[in-house]
């Protein structure tokens, strides 16, 4: 289990894993030619899970290619090296420390910059917490 993560009793006797299961959603213009998106997502899940001390299958990632993406009036039809950063949202159960969240954000940005051959600062990542009563998984609302 991830450092700082813990289990608590949940609905119907199931354990609720506080701090677990990150979901990473990536939106970006088409990646550089030859990029294997499935491999990039797998690498991201594996490295993020290792950071958190979890199994890779507990980390999920999706990729959406955008048809249109502009910065001001400048559009991009393929991923530039230093503009039009991939837009990334990481969602995880509540309960992580600011240090853990910062490490997750940095790792996601580093992996994407490396895998897409873009500048390290050219990734935009936000973090959202899934709170009790506002999350449906496993067939029920987690309370």
Could you give the topology of this structure?
Layout: E1 6-9, E2 15-18, E3 23-28, H1 37-52, E4 60-65, E5 70-71, E6 74-75, E7 87-93, H2 98-116, E8 124-130, E9 136-137, E10 140-141
Parallel strand pairs: 3-4, 7-8
Antiparallel strand pairs: 1-2, 3-7, 5-6, 9-10
Helix pairs in contact: 1-2
Descriptive report:
The protein has 143 residues and is of the alpha/beta class. It has one domain (23-129): Macrophage Migration Inhibitory Factor, CATH 3.30.429.10. 24% of the residues lie in helices and 29% in strands. It is built from 2 helices and 10 strands, in the order βββαββββαβββ. The strands form 4 sheets. The protein has a 4-stranded mixed β-sheet with strand order 4-3-7-8, covered by helices on one side. β1 and β2 form a beta hairpin. α1 (37-52) runs antiparallel to α2 (98-116). The longest helix has 19 residues, at 98-116. The protein starts with 5 loop residues before the first strand and ends with a strand. Residues 1-6 and 8-16 have low confidence and may be disordered.
């Amino acid at each position: 289990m991830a450092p700082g993560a813990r289990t608590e009793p949940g609905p119907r006797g199931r354990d609720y894993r506080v701090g677990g299961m990150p979901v990473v959603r990536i939106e970006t213009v088409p990646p550089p030619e030859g990029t294997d998106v499935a491999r990039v997502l797998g690498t991201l899940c594996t490295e993020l899970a290792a950071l958190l001390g979890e199994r890779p299958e507990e980390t999920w990632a999706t990729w959406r290619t955008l048809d249109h993406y502009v910065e001001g009036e400048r559009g991009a039809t393929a991923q530039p090296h230093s503009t039009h950063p991939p837009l990334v949202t990481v969602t995880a159960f509540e309960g992580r420390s600011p240090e853990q969240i910062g490490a997750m954000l940095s790792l996601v940005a580093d992996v994407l910059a490396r895998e897409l051959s873009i500048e390290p600062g050219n990734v935009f990542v936000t973090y959202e917490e899934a709170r009790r009563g506002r999350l449906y998984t496993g067939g029920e609302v987690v309370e």
